């Protein structure tokens, strides 16, 4: 489990810094052949379990097990296939760490909770009633459309306000339905241009100020390579290995804004950076 650190500086350059614990890291474990950064690496169960234990050893508070890629353009996976991918991994890790199940499908959510998961990480934001029924935590994420089409010219009049209003409505509904632990997530990269992503990241306080705990996922996403590649030419848009430093920097920014949990592939690097800032 993550140690807690406190921000020690009352102000930086005249701006108030929140006194808060360094947030948690949700480590990413994709049991898929086609995830954009780690697809195929952990498709066999022993490799997935080994990687899950590595994430725990690095300090992950939660391990997020997913059996379906939701990268832009990804094809959906059949429920049977998804279950076959994730269940042995959830079962194998649930005694060692808090496990979330990254799924859009009710059947997978129910089976994963029976196998030991205690958070539904729901990029569809449609499983609130299922979380209420199961008595588990729920991450409601914002997405425009679905993964196959979401990056086809996404449009917002005011991306920050629209994402916030959507998430608050979902969180309130879930709270009223009896979900005790609701997280909100703006869904970086899910139906959003680079400009939309950066607007949300520049205004994370708007989400934090709703009072709902915030989780975000920026890790290794395309826009990170786009920003760093544009500035010094050392990173490419396609090579995810070039995106670690930018992802870690954004995680520390997010924690400083009051975000409680960051979903990340590089757990140790994320926590080290956050500790140094703290
Ligand atoms: N991003 C991805 C998947 N699940 N869940 C939440 N709550 N927030 C996110 O930003 C988020 C998420 C996409 O990243 P990844 O799992 O690395 O890739 P893929 O969808 O290709 O498996």
CATH class: Alpha Beta
Any idea what the CATH architecture is? Answer: Alpha-Beta Barrel
Q: So how many helices?
A: 10
Taking the sheet with the most strands, its summary is: 8 strands, parallel
Structural class, by secondary structure, is alpha/beta
What shape does the CA trace take?
Answer: globular
Give the H and E element order: EEEHEHEHEHEHEHHEHHEH
Rg of Cα set = 18 Å
* Number of E-type strands: 10
Amino- and carboxy-terminal Cα gap:
17 Å
Strands side by side in the biggest sheet: 8-7-6-5-4-3-10-9
What small-molecule ligands were found?
Answer: 6-hydroxymethylpterin-diphosphate
CATH fold-level topology: TIM Barrel
The named CATH superfamily: Dihydropteroate synthase-like
Number of structurally distinct domains = 1
Question: What is the beta-strand fraction?
Answer: 5-15%
Helicity level: 40-55%
Averaged pLDDT, please?
88
Summarize the structure.
The protein has 278 residues and is of the alpha/beta class. The chain contains 10 helices and 10 strands. The chain binds 6-hydroxymethylpterin-diphosphate (HH2).
């Amino acid at each position: 489990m993550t140690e807690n650190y406190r921000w020690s500086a009352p102000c930086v350059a005249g701006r108030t810094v929140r006194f808060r614990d360094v947030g948690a890291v949700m480590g990413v474990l994709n049991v898929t052949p086609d995830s954009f950064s780690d697809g195929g690496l952990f498709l066999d169960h022993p490799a997935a379990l080994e990687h899950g234990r590595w994430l725990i050893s690095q300090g992950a508070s939660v391990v997020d097990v997913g059996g379906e890629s939701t990268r832009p353009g990804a094809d959906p996976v059949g429920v049977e296939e998804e279950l076959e991918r994730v269940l042995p991994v959830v079962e194998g890790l649930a005694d060692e760490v808090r496990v979330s199940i990254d799924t859009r499908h009710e059947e997978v959510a129910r089976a994963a909770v029976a196998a030991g998961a205690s958070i539904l990480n729901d990029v569809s934001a449609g499983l609130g009633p299922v979380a209420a029924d199961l008595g588990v935590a729920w991450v409601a994420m914002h997405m425009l459309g679905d993964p196959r089409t979401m990056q086809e010219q996404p449009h917002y009049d005011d991306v920050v306000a629209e994402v916030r209003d959507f998430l608050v409505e979902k969180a309130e509904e879930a709270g009223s339905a009896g979900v005790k632990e609701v997280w909100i997530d703006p869904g970086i990269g899910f139906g959003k241009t680079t400009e939309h992503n950066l607007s949300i990241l520049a205004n994370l306080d708007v989400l934090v100020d709703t009072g709902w705990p915030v989780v975000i996922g920026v890790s290794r996403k395309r826009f990170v390579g786009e920003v760093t590649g544009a500035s010094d030419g050392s990173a490419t848009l396609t090579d995810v290995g070039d995106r670690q430093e930018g992802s870690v920097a954004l995680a520390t920014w997010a924690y400083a804004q009051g975000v409680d949990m960051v979903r990340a592939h590089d757990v140790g690097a994320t926590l080290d950076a956050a500790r140094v800032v703290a």
